[in-house]
Structure prediction request, 147 residues.
Amino acid sequence: MAKKKQLSKRQLDVIEDLFVGELTEQGILDKYKVGRRLFGKWLTDELFAEHLDRRIAASYRQSAAYIARYAPLAAAKLVDLTESDKPETARKACLDIISMQSDGQNSAETPERPTDGSSAAMSGSSQLSAEAAGKILAILAQENATE
Prediction:
């Protein structure tokens, strides 16, 4: 039976340093005495590429979890900023809230909405048009000006 190929310690160290080290890619290659040609060869190696892809996916999952953890706090702070004494700050907070809403609806991770017709109001009309967003901003600006 053939022995299953494994990555060398140097290959594993290079991959790890690409994610946790403070060096540039070239700095990491220099640190481990890996030439560009050899690194290019590693990148075409299926096992190395799979390991690198898994590490990249893990980093994205970690980032997404971190962002999700603080999203409610960020949203609450944005809502508080809509009542700022500075009109430009309030306006930007409103725009960010609108942007967050439409980004969340376009996200691949957003659960699908019912398509049975029972929720026609939610099936796509909940996304704000530019005109509606403008009206909301105008109303908020008017309220802040009168206060």
Notes: Residues 46-81 form the longest helix (36 residues). Residues 8-70 form one domain.
